[in-house]
Design goal:
Largest sheet of chain B: 7 strands, mixed
Order of helices and strands of chain B: HHEEEEHEHEEEHHEHEHEHEEE
Distance between the termini of chain A: 28 Å
CATH architecture of the largest domain in chain B: Alpha-Beta Complex
Oligomer: heterodimer
Number of domains of chain B: 3
Strand order of the largest sheet of chain B: 9-11-8-12-10-13-14
Shape of chain A: globular
Shape of chain B: globular
CATH superfamily of the largest domain in chain B: PurM-like C-terminal domain
Distance between the termini of chain B: 47 Å
CATH topology of the largest domain in chain B: Phosphoribosyl-aminoimidazole Synthetase, Chain A, domain 2
Structural class of chain A: alpha/beta
Number of strands of chain A: 11
Strand content of chain B: 15-25%
């Protein structure tokens, strides 16, 4: 299949692995930022192809993982209201709040629907004028433009029974937070290709310079990731620290300016609480003032109690790349995808869930088959 | 009465009620929650050797013959989809469960639960399809039942079918008969049914229409028995797909099943849809595919027999059975790497990005 098979080719993969083995001199720790990349690395076993000096750690780029419990609890409370049709992408439905999840709300009679595009939610609102339609707007810069378009479409059509529960996060501020955290081990980044498709990569240039850390904009197929790691290691071995674009078939330096315009029209930069990482200033998006009437939090005014935190869970450290899932005492014992203690076990893109699915074997250490 | 007790205070519900006070859709999704429910509630309540075999049906002796008996309920939405409808599914599904017991399907029962307001024309189309599917499969629908529920209390139409078949060979075809060294044969490409249903349900438009693989399988399986292949186990791939079926079999047989990604056929249109939706085709449902476990030295002949009887699909040897680690399934990727497959909690959910 075009655009797929050439990026999964075994011979090409071997060539990149050999090239890496030839140039690597010292141990390096590289973080792949995006959960989609983590998923691909573990699914395709890419880390098994790397020389032992290279350690990949998994970044915070999983929207399901970093959405705080308080917001999930608000989603659950809204979804239980009789007038509400609550629309969400599929993988948010299983995410546990402090005492329930959206699948359970659905089982108990709540009108919870999986949609494939936020515009579908606008359509549902148009078709059900007597109901309130809430769309759970989750994600990074990647999903924000489509969510902005949904708001603009609702406004254009005069649809007033539509609102967003916004949980949007921005990548550059969290990379800075990781680099500034004490004990940070990350020496290079594979930046998230899809985020950069929208935003371009000029925002990463000052980060590379200021922290002297290479940033390689990287795609999601095995060959993309291997090539991204190779470019990153070449820089590290040469003592260079610039932004490079491995994912040139999708990413331009300036990004997609039409998408950025929609994003900036509808959203404004706000501080956000990241699950597992805490409050990071100016690290997320909220609805801009002219669009405040589409804000579900304002519309429903729901407040929830702050949840208890489980102390054994190390997801915060996993999200910062300081620890790996198998170093957690709760991993696959008290913490499983059915009963996750922390966010990284919840989403299929979460580092712990990816390890559980592809690596874990009862009694084994790392589960390499 | 504590929260763990059922009405009879002396019984303790084996499914932890504090975790699952109500039934979730995932309890029927063919994944881990469903297996827990079956193992903890149904197996422990009805305990007997036939149920404990955890086969697609029960096999028991009757008048010197071996008889296979099975049942299945069909709740698919939408009722009609490319490549079939709930009626063809209800006939073929039960025919296939009998075929997986190594039996020749003979007689089916049909129970219909109709929702008030269902167009009579819809019912007629479904019943006509059932008659045609039964004719093609060579089975008779010999008894049935009809109930109508209030409007809003059903999803148009639910069907239950049960089936009886006769086993005309002496092989103990079952998951526990799987042996180390067996070859694993897959009867064709995977993932068509699940994607066809999802596309129809969500009105997703792909370049080409993907049709369900819904089909009766006993003509294929019987050719193996007729030619004296020492079949150890058969299993059709339904909810949960190839991965879930193999995981169940590895667990029941206490073996390690190794499969090779590049031997597993997935059509380009199905693969494309899976990529877009973030689904793994290994876990997508099928309604006309099965795996056969046969001794390695008979694998090539079995494959040739299956290929000679297959019309539009190409059966392939996809893997082999090893001893350890017991109860696990390993996928060897095209890149030469390996990973364990795991059972999902319930249905696969499309990902955000």
């Amino acid at each position: 299949m075009k655009y797929l098979d050439e990026y999964r080719d075994a011979q090409t993969a071997r060539r990149y692995a050999e090239a890496l083995a030839r140039i690597v001199q010292r141990p390096w720790t590289i973080m792949e930022v995006c959960g989609g990349q983590t998923h691909a690395i573990v699914r395709f076993g890419i880390d098994q192809l790397l020389p032992p000096q290279i350690r990949l750690v998994h970044g915070p780029g999983c929207p399901v993982c970093v959405t705080p419990v308080e917001l999930i609890d608000k989603a659950i409370a809204m979804a239980g209201l009789p007038e509400v049709i609550f629309c969400s992408f599929g993988d948010m439905l299983r995410v546990p709040g402090s005492s329930s999840d959206l699948l359970r709300v659905k089982a108990e009679g709540g009108d919870v629907r999986i949609v494939y595009s936020p515009l579908d939610a606008v359509q549902i609102a148009a078709a059900n004028p007597q109901r309130e339609v809430v769309f759970f707007a989750v994600g990074f810069e990647t999903t924000a433009p489509a969510n902005a378009m949904a708001v603009l479409e609702a406004r254009r059509r005069g649809i007033e029974n539509f609102s967003l529960l916004v949980s949007h996060f921005l990548v550059p501020p969290v990379l800075r937070a990781i680099l500034e955290s004490p004990g940070c081990k990350v020496q290079g980044f594979l930046a998230a290709g899809h985020v950069c498709t929208v935003m371009g990569y000029t925002e990463y240039e000052p980060i590379a310079q200021q922290y002297h850390v290479p940033v390689v904009v990287t795609g999601f197929e095995p060959i993309d990731i291997l090539q991204g790691v190779l470019l990153c290691v070449q820089q590290l071995e040469a003592g260079r620290a610039v932004v490079e674009n491995q994912y040139a078939r999708a990413v331009r330096r300036e990004g997609n300016q039409a998408a950025q315009a929609a994003l900036h029209e509808v959203f404004q930069v706000v501080s956000r609480h990241w699950r597992g990482l805490g409050e990071i200033p100016r690290s997320g998006l909220g609805l801009a003032e002219p669009y405040a009437r589409y804000d579900a939090e304002r519309r429903f005014g729901i407040s929830v109690a702050p949840p208890d935190h489980d102390t054994t869970c190390i997801s915060g450290l996993v999200l910062q790349g300081a620890k790996r899932p198998l170093e957690c005492p709760a991993f696959a014992t008290t913490c499983t995808p059915e009963h996750p203690l922390g966010p990284t076990m919840v989403s299929s893109e979460g580092a712990c869930a990816a390890y559980y699915r592809y690596r874990h074997v009862a009694g084994g250490q790392d589960g390499r088959a | 009465m504590g929260e763990h007790s059922l009405e009879n205070g002396s019984l303790v519900c084996p499914v932890p009620l504090n975790q699952y006070p109500v039934v979730l859709l995932a309890h029927g999704g063919g994944g881990k929650l469903m297996h827990e429910l079956v193992a903890k509630m149904f197996l422990t309540s009805f305990r007997n050797p036939w149920l404990e075999a955890r086969h697609d049906g029960a096999v028991f002796p009757l008048d010197g013959k071996r008889i296979a008996f099975t049942t299945d309920s069909y709740v698919v939405r939408p009722l009609f989809f490319p490549g079939g409808n709930i009626g063809t599914l209800a006939v073929n599904g039960t025919v296939n469960d009998l075929a997986m017991c190594g039996a020749r399907p003979l007689y089916l029962s049909v129970g219909l639960v109709l929702e008030e307001g269902l167009p009579m024309e819809t019912l007629w189309r479904v019943v006509s399809s059932m008659a045609e599917a039964a004719r093609q499969a060579g089975v008779q629908i010999v008894t049935g039942d009809t109930k109508v529920v209030d409007k809003g209390k059903g999803d148009g139409l639910f069907i239950n079918t049960s089936g009886v078949g006769v086993i005309e060979h002496d092989l103990p075809v079952s998951p526990s008969a799987i042996q180390v060294g067996d070859a694993v044969i897959l009867s064709g490409d995977i993932g068509r049914h699940g994607i066809a249903i999802m596309a129809a349900r969500e009105s997703l438009q792909f370049e080409t229409e993907i049709e369900s693989d819904c089909a009766p399988l006993h003509q294929l399986t019987s050719t193996l028995f007729e030619h004296g292949i020492a079949v150890h186990c058969l299993r059709d791939l339904t909810r949960g797909g190839l991965a879930t079926a193999l995981l169940e079999l590895a667990e029941i047989s206490g073996t390690h099943i190794v499969i090779h990604e590049d031997h597993i056929a997935v059509r380009d249109d199905v693969r494309g849809a899976c990529e877009i939706l973030g689904l793994d085709p290994l876990y997508v449902a099928n309604e006309g595919r099965f795996v056969a476990f046969v001794p390695a030295h008979e694998a090539k002949r079995a494959l040739e027999l299956l290929r000679s009887r297959s019309k539009e699909t190409v059966p392939a040897i996809i893997g082999e059975v090893e001893a350890t680690p017991r109860g696990h399934v390993t996928l060897r990727s095209r890149l030469g790497t390996s990973r364990f497959l795991h059972m999902l909690s319930g249905d696969q959910l499309p990902r955000i990005c």
